[in-house]
Write a structure and sequence with these properties.
This protein has 240 residues and is of the alpha/beta class. The protein contains five helices and eleven strands, in the order βββββαββαβαβαβαβ.
């Protein structure tokens, strides 16, 4: 893969301690919804890589005219450099790469399971589906601690209202620590919930994205629910 120049257009806070960064999209750059790139910052000496490199799933859909990345902001050399990057500054991307893309058989349902910032590849997938396949049967299980921690929640709720094929099951597992009300689910994504969703859909393909510990736990949950490994696709987020 070769690097391509992009420029920072704007940044926005999208949840507690979570920021989306909007970059220009190079002419002719193509990718599949769910894929990622390495973002390389000029002059950064990040702990994640000597050349200031960090992998990010692409939030924007392939048909959109920007490249958007979203991340939890923490005190690392790379994140601080990204936070301080002036609007209009140049950076490099390397990619795309990754295979967390929807299966081709649109008649077979998909279950997307995301924890926290693991939602990012699924935003791209759902935006593309809303544009091209609004009837495609997709269920999204999205776990966060509190509503204020939930990136893109309002957009997901809107997409579920507007697209008959999409069902959103958002759950907040630490509402005792939240000052905001939440009328929806509060249980963790466990074997009972997974089995309930799977039984309603028949034989879906499952997609998992989130912190490595959560992904490993979800893989065990799916196995306990009798789901074959061949029906599970995984993306782990390191250093998110």
């Amino acid at each position: 893969m070769s690097t391509t120049e992009v420029r920072l257009l704007r940044r926005e806070r999208i949840a507690h301690a979570t920021t989306a960064f909007h970059f220009s999209k190079p002419a002719g750059f193509t990718f599949k919804a769910g894929q990622a790139v390495d973002l390389i910052l000029p002059g950064a000496n990040a702990a994640e890589g000597d050349d200031g490199r960090h992998a990010f799933s692409i939030v924007s859909a392939p048909h959109e005219n920007e490249l958007v990345f979203a991340t939890r902001m923490r005190d690392s050399a790379f994140k601080n450099a990204l936070k301080d990057l002036p609007i209009g500054s140049a950076a490099q991307i390397d990619g795309p790469f990754g295979a967390l893309t929807l299966h081709r058989d649109a008649a077979r349902p998909a279950v997307l399971i995301a924890g926290g910032i693991g939602i990012t590849p699924f935003i791209s997938i759902l935006r593309r589906a809303a544009s091209e396949e609004p009837q495609r049967r997709i269920t999204l299980l999205y776990a966060n601690r509190r509503p204020q921690d939930s990136a893109f929640l309002a957009e997901l709720q809107r997409l579920a209202q507007e697209n008959s094929g999409l069902r959103l099951v958002a759950t907040m597992t630490a509402m005792r620590d939240s000052g905001a009300a939440w009328p929806g689910e509060t249980r963790p994504i466990d074997q009972a919930l997974v089995s309930e969703i799977g039984a309603a859909l028949g034989s879906p393909v499952y997609y998992l994205a989130g912190p490595p510990g959560m992904v490993r736990g979800l893989q065990a949950t799916l196995a306990a629910a009798g789901i074959d490994d061949e029906d599970v696709r995984v993306e782990e987020f390191y250093g998110y």
